[in-house]
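Review form for a predicted model. The reviewer records the input and the model, then writes brief findings.
Reviewer: anonymous (R2)
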Amino acid sequence: MASEMMEALMALCQEKHIDQLYLIDRLEQSLAKSYAEILHLDWGAKVTIDRSTGKIYVYKLIPIDDSMDEEGNYTEFEEIDVTPKDTSRIAAQHAKAEINAIVRNSAREQIYEEFSSRIGDIITGTVLQSTPDFTIVKIREGVEAELPHFDQRRYENERNERPMGERYMHNQRIKAVIIDVRDPNSTVQPVRGEHSRPPIVISRTHPALIRRLFELEVPEIYEGTVEVMSIAREPGQRSKVAVRSLDDRLDPVGACVGPKGSRVRTVVSELRGERVDVILWDEDPAVYVGNALSPAKVTRVLIDEEKNYAGVIVPDDQLSLAIGKEGQNARLAARLTGWHIDIKSESLAADILRNVPVAPEPAEDLLSDEEPERCAYVSSDGVRCRNQARPGSRFCGVHDPEGFGEDAIEDAEDLI
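Model under review:
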C-alpha cells in the first residue's frame, strides 16, 4: 500500500512539475506537526518517509540534558519510535493538502514572474464572474485577474477600481490596466482571502488606461511623435488629456481626435461614454492653463509662480462653462496643470480693480541736481533775460505771457 502511494505521489509530481524531494520534505514537516498534536508530545515529533517504500516513521523527541545552549534551548534530542499503526490515512490527507498548496503556490510564482514586469500594461479579458466586491476576469487559460470594487466604507484597506455606474456581464470582453501583482513569497500581511483570489489586480479607473487606449488608437502616440504630457480623470464622468507634438508640422490634438472624431470616439466607447477632452500642452503656464479650461474661452491668465497660483479672467457668459458642473471643469484643469486656479468673470474683476487703492505718484523733486533752466525771453535789443524760468514754463515770472499781459512784458524791458 505504501509503495503504491509513493508511486502515485511521484507520478503526480511529474504531472504537476513539482520537485519530489521538496514535496517529501514538506510532507514530513506537515505530518510532524500533526502527530505532535495527535500524540500530545511536549517536545514535538519527527517524521521520516522512506523514499523507496513510502513507509512513514514517527519519532518522539526527548531533549538531552547536556545539550542546552546559553539561551536555555535544547539543541539535541533523543528520538523514540512511536509510529502509530494507521499512518497511511493521515499521510494521504496531508499529501493531498500539501500538493494542492504547492501547485497553487507554484502557479502564483509563475504568474508573478511573468506579469510583475507588466504593471501599467493594458490587457483584454473576459468576465468570468462578478460579485458585489470584485469581478474575476480571464486573461488567458489558467491566468485570471481581479477587478476589485469593494465598498471602502466597510473595507478601508481594499480598493475600488471600477468606474461609477459600470456593471459587467458574463463573457463580456473588457480592457483594463495591470496595477498590481501579488507576490506569493512576500512577508507582508496578505490581503483578505488572498489564496482564493487571483494574484493579478487590474483597474478601469487608473489614468494609465486612457494613455494605453490612445496608444492603441493613435499611431503617432505609439510611435512617439505625439506625447501625452498629463492626464486628469474622474472615472466614469470626464477626463482631460494634455498632448504635445515633437513635429512642428503635426497638430497633436487633431491626431488624437482623428478624422471626424473617429479616434477619440473609440476611446470614449471603451470608457462607456466617459467624456474625454484633448487639449494642447504649452510651455507657457498662462497658455497651458487657458487651454486646460477648454471649452471655455479665457480673457486673461495671471501667473504667480511663487504661490503656484493662476488667476483666470473669463467673459461673463463663459464663467459657468469654465467652472463646470459642480466645479468639475476647473477641478480637472487644476489637476491637469498642477496650478491652483481661481476663476473670475470680467465684471467681477473690474469691480475688484476699481476698489483697489491706487498708489500715489511720487512728489516732484524740487531740489533736483539738474541745472535750472534760464528764461527764454529776449528783448528787442537782443539781450536775453537772466532770470530763472518758472517750473513748467520757458519764461520767468516777469516775462511769462500766460501770467501777464503784453504791456507788462514791454514795461519789463527796462529791468534788463
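Findings: The first helix runs from residue 2 to 16.
Further findings: The mean pLDDT is 82.
Recommendation: see findings above.
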